[in-house]
Specification:
six-stranded mixed β-sheet; globular; alpha/beta; six-stranded parallel β-sheet
């Protein structure tokens, strides 16, 4: 293990310590190992860094050979947002499915098993759970990542998730403070704004974060959102009123505050990542997450130098930077010594068990009931009506029921249909997609798979076209089931994880 480089002064080491950069490749590049020797204390992992659990374990061992106490962070929510299983889909349903079941002990078990797998691979900080109350059904970035639209439900499951994850020795990072649920803009693309009174924020958005703090969440992630009732001038990540006044002062939180990715356009497109990082630390953030899109030594050097220069210019108090670095090191010490609860007996079965419990199955009026549904015995045609994926989820992770139905009903055929670029709100584009799906299906029974039908007019139109011609179509909704159920059988999975697809396929095939 390399000791800290003797030529690195305290100020520079502290500036490196507060950074959580990413990198490309499945082994650690030389520049990253060198920075670990100079004081870098955290590394962020993404899907591009992972091919298998064995490879991930070897990668984290390589990092710890350079710095034993390094924090290895990952964005592993389970459900739609997975990095461990980015190429196959997750073995765990996401928050919305767990909220649909509403069994806090199940949520704790799922989080514990997910944490156990992370810990076995050498990961000790998870940027999860999402504590956002999905109060705006048109939210383009939270959706099924939320436990639901009910505040108390979100609060109790957030606490259970934190408890389960940390019992496996992995620090939870509850996000996105002070709450990203009531937005209609994705902060990856622009700066969202939440215009609600302070008392609504207190009663709705902040309640799950209070529960997370009470449960001992070791980290909290800030949101790149403007909340005028709290601070009319700066987004939460850069707001001293929100991070220090509200989170530290009023809510009494003393753990690590991590920023959301600073390369997201809400910050990078308004303040720039260097200026934004300085303002975030000055506001009370302790760790700067960067690396989802920027993942190189030049970025680390730029941010390190910006923090050092801000201290020397009197723009950032040196004590604030030192305090932030100390909190990072404190979490690293906790992660190195965290005691793990005994392993659960259900282990790998818990994810599929939870996904099965999360299903909501209904039938269209006049077409019988779920109890009288006759399972398919012949291979169907699966028409996936595919929206543009949000950046948090990514478009590389497979979703749907086709792969699972191919296993259960060999010979199943599938096709993907979407609106042309820029036509997401065009119902006419949906009619064209629906007609194309009908032609491709031929005489086969159709299984139509949608994701957030209520947010995509073209998708609703395509589904209407299918059902008008083929009322026996089975519909699987793998997003938030906000639209009224349609189809001979309607299956709401409350998420698009692989196990959610498996659970739906089992119903269709009568297992």
């Amino acid at each position: 293990m390399t000791t800290l480089a003797s030529g690195t002064d305290t100020l520079t080491r502290d500036a490196l310590t507060v950074l959580q950069p990413g990198f490309t490749g499945t082994t650690a590049p030389d520049w990253l190992l060198r920075r670990l020797g100079e004081g870098l204390a955290s590394v962020g992992l993404f899907g591009r860094n992972i091919t298998s659990s064995g490879q991930l374990a070897a990668l984290t061992a390589q990092l710890r050979a350079e710095r034993d106490g390094v924090l290895v962070a990952i964005d592993e929510e389970g459900g739609d947002v997975t990095r461990l299983e980015v190429r196959t889909g997750s073995s765990f349903p996401g928050n919305h499915a767990l909220g649909a079941v509403d069994d806090v002990e199940l949520t704790r078990e799922v989080a514990h098993e997910l944490g156990r797998r992370l810990a076995a691979c050498g990961v000790n900080l998870n940027w999860a759970p999402s504590a956002d109350v999905n109060s705006n059904p048109r939210n383009p970035v939270i959706g099924v990542r939320s436990f639901g639209a009910d505040t108390e439900l979100a609060a109790r499951h957030t606490a259970a998730y934190v408890t389960g994850l940390q019992s496996a020795g992995v620090a939870a990072c509850t996000k996105h403070f002070p709450g990203h649920g009531d937005t209609a803009v994705d902060s990856h693309h622009a700066l969202p704004r939440i215009d609600v009174p302070a008392d609504v924020l207190t009663d709705r958005e902040l309640t799950p974060f209070r529960a997370a703090i009470a449960a001992g969440s070791r980290a909290v992630m800030s949101a790149h959102i403007l909340v005028p009732a709290l601070d009319p001038d700066r987004p939460a990540t850069l707001s001293r009123r929100i991070l220090t006044g509200l989170l530290r002062g009023e809510l009494g939180y003393d753990g690590l505050i991590v920023t959301d990715g600073m390369e997201m356009r809400a910050i990078a497109g308004t303040y720039g990542i260097e200026r934004g990082s300085v303002l975030a630390v000055a506001a009370g953030a302790d760790a700067i997450c960067v690396g989802g899109g920027l993942a190189d030594d030049a970025t680390v050097r730029r941010l390190r130098d910006a923090l050092v220069a801000a201290v020397r210019a009197g723009e950032l108090p040196e004590e604030r930077l030192a305090e932030a670095a100390d909190r990072v090191r404190a979490l690293a010490r906790w992660a190195s010594t965290a005691r793990r609860a005994p392993e659960e007996t259900r282990g790998s079965e818990i994810g599929l068990h939870a996904a099965r419990r999360a299903l909501t199955v209904t039938a269209a009026p006049g077409l019988g009931s779920p109890e009288t549904f006759e399972p398919l015995t012949e291979p169907p045609y699966v028409a996936a009506l595919t929206p543009v994926a949000n950046i948090a989820v990514g478009d590389e992770t497979p979703w749907g029921v086709a792969a699972e139905l191919v296993q259960l009903l060999p010979g199943t055929v599938t096709g993907s249909f979407s609106a042309a670029e820029g036509k997401e709100s065009d119902a006419g584009a949906g009619e064209s997609a629906g007609r194309a799906a009908l032609q491709a299906a031929g005489p086969r029974r159709i299984v139509a798979v949608v994701r957030d039908e209520h947010r995509h007019p073209w998708m609703a139109s395509a589904l209407g076209t299918l059902l008008a011609a083929r009322p026996d179509t089975i519909v699987v909704e793998m997003g938030v089931p906000q639209a009224a159920p349609r189809g001979a059988l309607h299956i709401a999975t409350h998420g698009a994880a692989r196990v959610c697809g498996r659970a739906a396929a089992e119903v269709i095939a009568g297992l």
